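Why should sequence recovery work at all? Because a backbone constrains its sequence more than one might expect. Tight turns favour small or flexible residues, buried strands favour hydrophobic ones, and helices have their own preferences. The token representation captures these environments compactly. In the example below, the structure is given first.
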């Protein structure tokens, strides 16, 4: 992998968005890292270092790459993909709050205002809500994330 891109991924804890990557390297460098196996696209515009995917975790054929990440990295990937247009919710939020444990590989849940332009993706259920405001008291920050 390109050393500049590698440093960016390292600083991001193994995660990088396309927007951040193209600020420091040409877009073709990002796609070359994917083709060579250094990065894996887990959601649109969101990539993780390939070595962070759990090869031991049994996944069903066709399971999304997101389901092979540990919970913390999967949550960070979902939040990066949402770009502030949604917040973790349902079982994903309960786990962050320590109320109910979510297992690695489980479907991630995100709530978003109806007009946010987010749609469910493999591994992520987007719950569109009318009149959802992404600020307290409807959304509360916990452990540095939404």
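From this structural description, the recovered sequence reads:
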């Amino acid at each position: 992998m390109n050393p500049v891109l590698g440093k960016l991924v390292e600083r991001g804890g193994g995660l990088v968005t396309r927007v951040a990557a193209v600020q420091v390297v040409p877009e073709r460098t990002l796609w070359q890292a994917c083709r060579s196996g250094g990065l894996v696209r887990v959601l649109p515009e969101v990539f993780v270092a390939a070595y962070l995917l759990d090869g031991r975790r049994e996944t069903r054929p066709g399971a999304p790459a997101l389901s092979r990440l540990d919970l913390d990295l999967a949550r960070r990937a979902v939040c990066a993909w949402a770009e502030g247009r949604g917040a973790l919710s349902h079982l994903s939020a309960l786990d962050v709050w320590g109320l109910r444990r979510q297992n690695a590989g489980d479907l991630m849940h995100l709530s978003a205002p109806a007009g946010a332009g987010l749609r469910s993706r493999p591994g992520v259920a987007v719950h569109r809500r009318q009149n959802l405001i992404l600020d307290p008291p409807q959304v509360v920050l916990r452990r540095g994330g939404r």
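A few observations help interpret the result. DSSP finds five helices and six strands in the chain.
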